[in-house]
Amino acid sequence: MNNSKQLDVVVAGLAVADIIGRPIDLKSFPKRGGLRLIEGVTLTTGGNVSNVGIDLAKLGFRVGAITRVGNDSLGRFIVQQYRAYGIETEGVTIDAKQQTSATMVCVAKDGERSFLHARGCMANFRASDVLEHLALINKAHLFAFGYLGLLPETEREFKTLFETVKAKTAANILLDTAGVPRATKAALNKFLPFVDYFVPSLHEAQQMTGRRTPEGIVDFLRSCGATGLLAVKLGAKGAYVSADGVSRYVRATRVRHVVDATGAGDAFVAGLLAAIIRGYGVLEAVSVANAVAASCVTAVGASTAIRSFESYLKPNQTSRP
Length: 321
Prior knowledge:
32% of the residues lie in helices and 24% in strands. It contains eleven helices and 13 strands. The chain is α/β, with parallel strands linked by helices. It is globular and about 55 Å long. Helix 1 crosses helix 10 (264-277), helix 8 crosses helix 9 (214-223) and helix 10 runs antiparallel to helix 11. The chain has helices at 47-59, 73-84, 127-131, 134-137, 152-155, 158-168, 185-191, 202-209, 214-223, 264-277, 282-296; strands at 9-13, 16-22, 40-46, 63-70, 88-95, 102-107, 113-118, 142-148, 172-177, 197-198, 229-233, 239-243, 246-250. It has one domain (9-24, 41-304): UDP-N-acetylmuramoyl-L-alanine:D-glutamate ligase, CATH 3.40.1190.
């Protein structure tokens, strides 16, 4: 790709502070007023801007962030983390009216998570937060936005947002999902034609499309105008990918022991974008994405276990500049 670009990826959308507790069995929660000891509590960053952004930085790529944080200790922590990983923060808006978005993450013994989320300043996030920073996006090869499902105010502006990014910059667009995406077919028809990479999880895609199988989901999304790469994230089963007239299941990388599944979907996105930037084909890129997602779940926190890009290549794969 053209090396005159100053960034590889600009990541926009949700940024949160995560307070992760483990292990927590929600079926035997302490009685009201009671106390139970757990192994540990970790303060870390979360949301696609933090997870994808930091993962990409650790993989060895140049990243910019566009999001909102509050004028509080959690917001300062998030920005400090971005700067520690070399992430460009000129697109981070400090919101003086609301607290930083935050999530309490309850991690069970098997690594599965349940969430308690305070939207905070992300309720004030709008397409204008992104469009004010088109110059930043134009420095990058790729623009990754998340999430469809957790930013309802911004979702109403998706057509304008993605159409403008496509018209005013040279960046390809990736859209990820989370929470409970409820976009109608009419809404999808408006913005999916501008999206180059759409990567929902199976459960989220089922909720959104009403289809049960990856094949049916892809057919539905194609009928909504999606022409780029579609990948349905299948967790421990890998992913189903459709691009350039080819659809195929790509196996997951085996994990011996799952510690914390927080951020696995975002790690998949980071691995996919990293491999695309390096010039790998679709199936190879999804294989790398699966490997990065698999490593994510081996430690507490969304980005703790992420390593250099080259460490995820198979023996028959060669590193590319």
